[in-house]
Amino acid sequence: MKSYDIVVIGGGPAGMAAALAAHKNQVKNILIIERDLELGGILNQCIHNGFGLHHFKKELTGPEYSNLVTLELQKTNIEIMTDSMVLKLDHDNDNKTVYAINGKLGLMKIKAKAIILAMGCRERTRGAIRIHGARPAGVYTAGTAQRLINIDGYMPGKKVVILGSGDIGLIMARRMTLEGAKVEAVLEIMPYSNGLTRNIVQCLNDFSIPLMLSHTVTKIHGKERVEGVSITKVDMNLCPIKTTEQFIPCDTVLLSVGLIPENEISRACGIMIDRKTAGPIVGELRQTSKEGIFSCGNVLHVHDLVDFVSEEGYLAGFGAAQYIHNNLNPDFTHTTIPGDGINTVVPQKINAKNITDNIKLFMRVKKVYTNCAINAYIGDKLIAHKKENKFLPAEMVSLTIKKEDLFNNTNAEILIKIEQI
Amino acid sequence: MYDITIIGAGVVGCAIARELARYNLKICLIEKNEDVGAEVTKANSGIVHGGYAEKPGSVKAKFSSKGNSMYKQLNAELNFGFAQTGSFVIGFDEKDALKINELFVYGQKNGVPNLQIVDGDFVRDKEPNLNKDINVALYCPTAGITSPYEFAIALAENAIQNGVELKLNSKVTTIQKSHDHFIITTNHGYSTLTTKIVINSAGLYTDEIAKMVGLDEFTIKPRQGQYLLFDKDQGDLINSVIFQVPTAISKGILVTKTYHGNLLIGPDATPAPEKDYLDTSSKNISEIIEAAKKSFPNFDLQKVISAFAGNRAAATTEDFIIEESKVSGFINVAGIESPGLTAAPAIATYVSEIVATIKQIKLSPKTNFNPYRKAYHAIASMQQQALNNLIKQDAKYGCVVCRCETVSEGEICDALHRNIPINSLDAIKRRTRAGMGRCQGGFCTPKIMEIIHNELQIPKEEITKKGGKSLFAFGRTK
Predict the structure, then answer these.
(1) Catalytic annotation on B49?
(2) Do the Cβ atoms of B450 and A141 come within 8 Å?
(3) Whole-angstrom Cα distance, residue B128 to residue B118?
């Protein structure tokens, strides 16, 4: 049986960054397992620009970003196994086994001292949000359509309605328009967009594509291929207002209605999952509830920008390296609690002893807040504060907590909440 | 000239074809869709019923418990998937208890073995996640679950192995009776065929087919049932088939684990405006959710994979119609609504008995009939040693295409090269489960299109979801 110090599952930006960080921190024996034919994950189909502004301090396309990281990897002795699928993990404290399969080597058991989960996420489907009506061809998730166009070179449709204003949906509105399709509208059930503001401007406004807030698709029509959709306005409780129903003829429906971390193998090996993020519950170095298993990137929580995915990958890789060198303090000293207005916080746990510098907490708000601050408290003491004109659910917020504030307060709970200024 | 032409390759038509393939006959099986089992057969509960719900003396009652008893052997021969999980009809109050007693008596009369009326504790012992207020139940250990479309596919594959000719994409347009034979035309290249006997197993369209020879004794009034399918972690919470006490038109909302381990709830029963109307609606699905909670209160709606609808081919006579009609040599197998899937094997045997009485035909058994149909190598459930031997022979079995259901390229290629010529993604899905999982083909659709393109040399622009104009791509990008 092959054996490694660290096995990284997933060769997208999170997994690559994690492997690089572990390597920099003197871990010798690292393997990345990637299911696709090459490294890069979903970046390979993201041919638009806007990547790398934070991480590389320049604007790159997805494949360029992926290529730069791959080049760094090639300078190391990190092993890479592509076209291989991980089916299962066994966790028996010191003894961790990864079951992977490919056409050359068959089903193999690989031993690992530490495992880093970096499998990314999948798109929420039509079934999951229960759009009713007929079930014809022509209903795609935005990412599938993106792959068909950018990798395979085929047009998934000509007359398109996009449901959901997530970033991939916005990007695809522009992409399909550039390829000659007519995008009739982008519908968003919430009264605000779920995409980054820059994408609304550059992908919709610049191409005069209407964004219909508080609207949803109530029915899909067409027996063989999509022939149209019924849409309505929704009320404050997101219920369709029947009297506002209208029919839009189209041959394609693209869905950009959320991403779900792909944690099936994490769950199956008993890792505790946060119901809100749908990713593992992790500590400050992205250690999960199973000793020696770490998690980073979109499999942990869905990010807006790849730059932050890479940053988190480095953190998990550093954490796994500390674990290999027996420098990782087990257990936790603090817990983060999402309070009023806060939907998710990562990490959920902190061991102050493992923190070398300050610690960044990443969070999402529940709805749009204007003229508010996000405050973190230990007991009555305010330990961090961030003020913005606007907090949007679509934009992840980070909050920095000073190391000494954790040591000076024995109370174990850090409460984070939105407060009016 | 064919001895026998079977119109409609649903589970009933396929079962008849496979049964008659035991004899030295020239048989043609005609199907208007691009695959077998692609209509009523593909969208139902997948339950192999015990046979206690049908009124004693009815045609339905005659065939359902007998059909049930044939499944084990058929599965051993055809490998389509069948598990005898048992079923419960659960009751809460006195009124339910009366109905359960009535079903027990029906069951006794219909010859259903090992039926028991049990108390709430018995139910909770076997099904700890059900409603705590269940007081009484009818337990039927012989009921089970199957994969209905895989059953039809297996029957058809085995029928073809034994000489039956299958014509897909062929809709019957006219049937002409000409003294001792029939002349059938289809829309497939406007071809004509002649046959001594016609078996009308056209499901929702049996009335229209019967009209072609002047028969109008029955009409099919399609009855729609909607369903909600959940991910497998929800299926793990239930072990058997859970019915509520039946109503006049339906066996009641059921909660079941499917053969492949998902959770399935439904169906309701509403008249369908058209035979091919398969829209789901939020109103019906919401009602099904509420009704199902009465049996099983704690399923997770975040784990829904898909909603779907199926139409049952209910006849105005409210019973199965299985007989040689007034037109000699024309056999109707119509009105096969629930429990038609259960009854199908027994119906097929009975139809062969009818055929034996028709004088133009002589039934002589084939000496070389092969009852066995090869299973797929489903890598998701294979042991390491066996899987590695398989991958050594064919590396494609190591390439996982569908990550949600762990389906390999090898399985997809197997599906494309079997004796039913398929090329749609839904046909592949029904055979291999690729695209059946939680991402609903989000990741594997482009990969499967690539495989179809490579294996069958079909341009990607011509690849469909389910035949006809259900295309995936409209040409190349700029």
Answers:
(1) yes
(2) no
(3) 15
| Residue A347: per-residue pLDDT | 98
User: What is the distance between the alpha carbons of residues B60 and A158, in angstroms, rounded to a whole number?
Assistant: 49
User: Which residue, chain included where needed, has tokens 């006049």?
Assistant: B248
Model confidence at A383, pLDDT cuts 50, 70, 90, reads very high
Report residue A343's pLDDT band, with 50, 70 and 90 as the boundaries. very high
**Is residue B224 within 8 Å of B307, Cβ to Cβ?**
no
Dig out the tokens for A21 from the structure.
Answer: 């960080």
Q: Beta B321-324 vs B330-334: how paired, if at all?
A: antiparallel
The answer to whether A182 faces chain B, any CB pair under 8 Å, is no
pLDDT over 70, % of chain B? 99
Q: Can you give the pLDDT at residue B191?
A: 80
CB contact (8 A) between residue B474 and residue A128: no
Q: Which residues contact B362 (CB under 8 A, 6 or more apart)?
A: none
Chain segment B21-56, per-residue pLDDT in tens: 999 999 999 999 999 999 999 999 999 999 999 999
Q: What is the DSSP string of B80-145?
A: --EE---EEEEE-SHHHHHHHHHHHHHHHHHT-TT-EEEEHHHHHHH-TTS-TT--EEEEETT-EE
Q: What are phi and psi of A409, to 5 degrees?
A: -125, 115
pTM (two decimals)? 0.96
How many CB contacts within 8 angstroms connect chain A with chain B? 140
Q: What is the ipTM of this complex?
A: 0.95
**Size of chain A, expressed as the number of residues it contains:** 421
Count Cβ atoms below 10 Å from residue B456 Cβ, excluding itself: 14
Chain A (380-419) residues lying within 8 Å, Cβ to Cβ, of chain B: none
For residue B172, what are the CA distances in angstroms to A76, B38, B40, B412? 66, 16, 18, 30
The string over A145-183, giving b where at least 16 C-beta atoms fall within 10 Å of a residue's C-beta and e elsewhere, is bbbbbbebebbbbebbbbbbbbbbbbbbbbbbbeeebeb
Specify the residue for token string 């995409």: A195
Instruction: Find the closest chain B residue to A139 by CA distance.
Output: B472
Question: Which of B443, B451, B463, B469 to mutate: most A Cβ within 10 Å?
Answer: B443
Name the residue among B311, B339, B282, B285 with its Cα closest to residue B224.
Answer: B311
Using the structure block, give the residue that is written with the tokens 């001792």: B180
Among the partner residues B280, B305, B387, nearest to A106 by beta-carbon distance? B387
